[in-house]
């Protein structure tokens, strides 16, 4: 065994791997370098980053402008207590104000998406007391810490519940998931029942302070609701005095083509929580953005929240640089062109693979939902299989094969996450999709041919 391999094994033996049984993590891939849309292992093998790591490296790797901003800040003032102002946080707030929707102009800075949501929950519960309940949705992930994991609908919450780690006062609403509608209805005849049900839920529950949504659901499906959904939710929240929180941790920062995904529906939430692409993942930074109503409330009330690393200058230094780079990139028109190409190519690819039940998405944010049978929509794996000890998930098998062939694709239990950095070119998309084409053969072999075409469940305007 080489020294390097031994050190990697020692490292694994002495660290907790996230979201996993530790016995399965003995020899993680050693990554030594990354540039553009590629990262490189210690042998020099290149991998196309087709999921932007954890859907966060929106600018790709080694962006020189962001790196320079961080280096300059490290040399000047890497840390100062949050109660002082500093040039880095001043510039970050100035930059945020150029992209946030009008009215969302009071910010709290932390270092992770989960913290951004913790702060949001605390703010709304304080401001809306005695109402305290937060409605979330089953197809969601909001973070790992107590309040955020309580808001999470995906199976990671089950473990937090077993550990008695969740907070009370969270209810789950049915998802806006047209491929598997929880009401067994079809748009548009459904009348967007998934939105209307929220009105019923808020009235019957009582004491509801807020509704939290991922405007385009991230890990749990790249779900895009019908056009009426968010305007209806906004109206329902307004009618009941309930705050609308948009968790844009993953869907923000031009991932879906606009700075924040909620812009697609012209809806302004009361709070936006975000992280990931806010720095292009160059520094750990997260933001809770609040409306004037909340800002006003805390003029007189104590905002009883903080961290040693709140408003961390080094973390904040990446924000204006990343925002500048993202704006420049979007102004070039390349991401829009490549997104259209990616969508066309993915739609075509999905046709050719029996195991793809549904293809959906927007911007640089797509899902291939794998099924055994397109007609019955029988899945290969379900939520309860996510942490199975006996079963290798089909999505995981396909992703592992693609990785062997040099393309990194993040798998969830039912979908593959196609979310490349926004700098990717058409030729690079084609290169990655050629690999995916081969890897999907693994799933195709276990799918049945029913002659049913692939579904494109989020093409609301065109296909219906
Ligand atoms: C929508 C959403 N919210 C919150 C989080 C939590 O962010 P973090 O991992 O930075 O705590 C994530 C992470 O993937 C996310 O996708």
Q: How many structural domains does the protein architecture include?
A: 2
Instruction: Kindly report how far apart the N and C termini lie.
Output: 59 Å
Form type: globular
Helix content: 25-40%
What kind of sheet is the major sheet?
7 strands, mixed
Strand order of the largest sheet: 4-10-9-8-7-5-6
Question: Which CATH C-level class of the largest domain is it?
Answer: Alpha Beta
The small molecules bound here are: pyridoxal-5'-phosphate
Estimate what percentage of residues fall within beta strands: 15-25%
Query: Under CATH, the topology of the largest domain is which?
Result: Aspartate Aminotransferase, domain 2
Which spans have pLDDT < 50 for at least 5 consecutive residues?
A: none
Structural class: alpha/beta
Discrete helix count: 15
CATH superfamily of the largest domain, by name, is Type I PLP-dependent aspartate aminotransferase-like (Major domain)
Q: What oligomeric assembly is this protein in?
A: single chain
What integer value in Å does the Rg equal? 22 Å
Strand count: 16
The CATH architecture of the largest domain can be named as 3-Layer(aba) Sandwich
Average pLDDT, all residues = 97
């Amino acid at each position: 065994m080489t020294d390097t391999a031994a050190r990697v094994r020692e490292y694994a033996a002495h660290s907790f791997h996230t979201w996993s049984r530790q016995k399965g993590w003995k020899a993680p891939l050693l990554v030594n370098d990354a540039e553009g849309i590629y990262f490189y292992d210690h042998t020099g093998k290149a991998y196309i980053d087709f999921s932007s790591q954890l859907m966060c490296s929106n600018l790709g790797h080694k962006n020189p402008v962001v790196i320079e901003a961080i280096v300059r800040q490290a040399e000047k003032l890497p840390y100062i207590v949050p109660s002082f102002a500093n040039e880095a946080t001043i510039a970050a707030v100035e930059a945020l104000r150029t992209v946030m929707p009008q009215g969302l102009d009071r910010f709290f800075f932390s270092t992770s998406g989960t913290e951004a949501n913790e702060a949001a929950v605390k703010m709304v519960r304080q401001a809306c007391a005695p109402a305290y309940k937060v409605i979330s949705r089953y197809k969601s992930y909001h973070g790992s810490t107590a309040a955020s994991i309580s808001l999470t609908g995906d199976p990671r919450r089950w473990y937090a519940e077993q550990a008695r780690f969740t907070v009370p006062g969270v209810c789950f609403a049915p998802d806006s998931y047209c491929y598997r509608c929880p009401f067994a209805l079809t748009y548009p005849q459904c009348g967007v029942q998934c939105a209307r049900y929220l009105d019923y839920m808020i009235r019957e529950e009582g004491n509801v302070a807020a509704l939290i949504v991922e405007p385009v659901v991230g890990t749990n499906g790249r779900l895009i609701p019908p056009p009426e959904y968010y305007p209806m939710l906004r109206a329902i929240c307004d009618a009941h005095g309930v705050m609308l929180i948009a968790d844009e941790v993953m869907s923000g920062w031009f991932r879906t083509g606009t700075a924040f995904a909620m812009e697609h529906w012209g809806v302004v939430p009361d709070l936006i929580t975000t992280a990931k692409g806010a720095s292009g993942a160059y520094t750990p930074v997260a933001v809770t953005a609040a409306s004037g109503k909340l800002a006003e409330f805390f003029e007189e009330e104590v905002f009883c929240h903080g961290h040693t690393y709140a408003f961390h200058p080094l973390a904040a230094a990446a924000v204006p640089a990343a925002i500048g780079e993202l704006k420049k990139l979007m102004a070039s028109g390349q991401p829009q062109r490549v997104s259209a190409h990616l969508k066309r190519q993915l739609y075509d690819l999905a046709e050719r693979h029996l195991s793809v039940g549904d293809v959906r998405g927007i911007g640089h944010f797509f899902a291939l939902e794998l099924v055994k049978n397109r007609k019955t929509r029988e899945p290969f794996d379900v939520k309860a299989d996510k942490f199975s000890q006996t079963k290798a998930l089909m999505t995981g098998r396909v992703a592992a094969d693609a990785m062997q062939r040099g393309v990194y694709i993040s798998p969830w239990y039912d979908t593959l996450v196609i979310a490349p950095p926004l700098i990717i070119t058409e030729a690079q998309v084609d290169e990655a999709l050629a690999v995916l084409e081969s890897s999907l053969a693994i799933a195709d072999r276990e799918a049945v041919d029913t002659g049913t075409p692939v579904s494109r469940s989020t093409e609301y305007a065109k296909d219906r």
